Predict the 3D structure of the following.
Amino acid sequence: MIEIGRTILSDDVFEKHFVCDILKCKGACCIEGDSGAPLTDDEAMMIELEYSNFENYLPEKHTREVEKQGFSVIDSDGDLVTPLVDNRQCAFSFYDERGILKCAIEKAYFEGKSKFRKPISCHLFPIRITEYKRFDAVNYQELEICKPGRECGTSQKVPLYKFLKEPLIKKYGADWYAQVELAAEHLDRQK
């Protein structure tokens, strides 16, 4: 494990290779799991404020669920998360013409209709962050649904921390990420 600032990163963040291969996984991270995507209070508020900017991308069944459940819910663990449709699929996702699950929030962002890209937990996936009182634990969550991403990352020789550079900087800042790169260089020299 590597400590940087108030974060502790698992070795997997440096050692594992990953590049999302959405054509193979079909966006499974938007439908697999036992809960919705983790949200911060600010993200829940942004989703509510920006909902009208991405609502039209959602299937009617999803908009009905959002009307019924709300823009965010508390799951069985007591965490703030996105609502689900049929207790499975993120309510803010939709299937594109190729049968790939996509994020309606992110679609609106890329079309210039919203300032909010998507929850940081989604942007960082398959990294999961657990916030403790004194530090954040930054861990790689290895799931079967992401096997194509591991294969793609391995073939391209892209470490997980490099693939997730943008959301890691968004979460912790450019100076913090520069320290991650230095730590990676140090680990490489030790091999």
About this structure: The chain has a mean pLDDT of 93.
